[in-house]
Amino acid sequence: MKKKITLSLLLAAFVSTMAFAQVTSLRGDQDIGENNSLPKIKVVPKNQDRFALNYVNQPPMVPHAVDGYQINQSNNACLQCHDVDVYRKTGAPRVSPTHFMDRDNKVLTQVSARRYFCLQCHVPQAQTEALVENDFVPAGKFGQ
């Protein structure tokens, strides 16, 4: 019984000290109770030059805004410009042949379900300040 009471008191003391702890986030050193102002959403230019790749097999970044693009089980707005049948007309890069393979490397006639949701890997880019320091250097001739 004494052990349970002692353990309960230690746990209560620990929890009470944690309640006064200060949280540090990428937005600075602020108490939990303070009103944090969210950073503004960065504007992605409508069209911009393609970004250089930084490493082998990096998914290319999207050089245009994708606001309002519908990608669901019945519709993929990306394929309206990038699909094999239309990319020559639109001037957009063609979907990679690897996107037409299932996990057993069987070639399909449609984009594979595991590659269908483009924005999981291909992300739109905006010129912004880095949230954290980064000393990454592209390998070899990448990033040129």
UniProtKB/TrEMBL annotation:
<feature type="signal peptide">
    <location>
        <begin position="1"/>
        <end position="21"/>
    </location>
</feature>
<keyword id="KW-0574">Periplasm</keyword>
<dbReference type="InterPro" id="IPR005591">
    <property type="entry name" value="NapB"/>
</dbReference>
<keyword id="KW-0249">Electron transport</keyword>
<keyword id="KW-0560">Oxidoreductase</keyword>
<dbReference type="InterPro" id="IPR036280">
    <property type="entry name" value="Multihaem_cyt_sf"/>
</dbReference>
<comment type="function">
    <text>Electron transfer subunit of the periplasmic nitrate reductase complex NapAB.</text>
</comment>
<keyword id="KW-0813">Transport</keyword>
<keyword id="KW-0408">Iron</keyword>
<keyword id="KW-0349">Heme</keyword>
<comment type="subunit">
    <text>Component of the periplasmic nitrate reductase NapAB complex composed of NapA and NapB.</text>
</comment>
<keyword id="KW-0732">Signal</keyword>
<dbReference type="GO" id="GO:0050140">
    <property type="term" value="F:nitrate reductase (cytochrome) activity"/>
</dbReference>
<keyword id="KW-0479">Metal-binding</keyword>
<protein>
    <recommendedName>
        <fullName>Periplasmic nitrate reductase, electron transfer subunit</fullName>
    </recommendedName>
</protein>
<dbReference type="Pfam" id="PF03892">
    <property type="entry name" value="NapB"/>
</dbReference>
<comment type="similarity">
    <text>Belongs to the NapB family.</text>
</comment>
